[in-house]
Amino acid sequence: MILRIGIPKGLRVSSTRVSTWAIAFVAFSLASLVSGGGEAGAVPQSEAAAGGRTVTVNTGSFDLAVRSAPSATSQKIGSIADHSKVVITCYARGVVFSGGPYHLSTDLWNRLQSGGYVTDAMLDTGSNDPVVPPCETESMRLTAGRAVGRKAQNNPGRDGTDMWAAFEKWYFVSGKQFYPAIGGAPKDLASAARSSGWSVAGDPQSRAIVVIPPGVLDAPAAGHVAWVDTVSKRADGTYLRLTEMGGPGMGPGTWSARDVKAQKGLSYVLLP
């Protein structure tokens, strides 16, 4: 354990970890992750969050960017002033970030109580290891009525693709137990999953891979797949909260998140 509190300025502290989600080692300067914008996620020092932990932002001087996914290249959804108190609820292993006042290299990202992810390199938590539970534990219990099909020990998708990312989310949410042994083009994933013994639904489901046909929700000719984090009802319909790679306007290897309205023709490959 390396404590950050009380380390004299200028002392170099490093911690290199292997990232499950890292497509390549990503080295960013402090300025690439921290920039201006409206504050998001800051809480009064006195606030105590049930199930979370209050920590201090420490960038050195700049605001800390809040990202939609555990990657410095994912969409920026807010920012937090340096030295603010924030509540983190869980952690995820994402793309390696290097920088910050402690010169850390880490793939550890913390999810804010208010939503979004921030790099652990910019937080004073008292440790370079996780201080909150992994985010995937929220969905690790088996769901009744969902079949268990053929499993794989390695990700069957090609690195950096939407299928690889969806399978990685599956693996993490399963508690790092297994991948589904399915393949083919994204548009054919539902039929491949059925053939492999997994449950496939036509109604919106969370804890699932959504299969998006070509032309629907800006999907390309090969189709698109993404992970469904949550399903919510709104006045105008049902919405899906997606985590994905290679989404609209995003290149290969880039994590992002978005809310989309559920459409006819979508299929959902269900994680038990």
Automatic annotation (TrEMBL):
Protein name: CHAP domain-containing protein
Provenance organism: Mycolicibacterium fluoranthenivorans
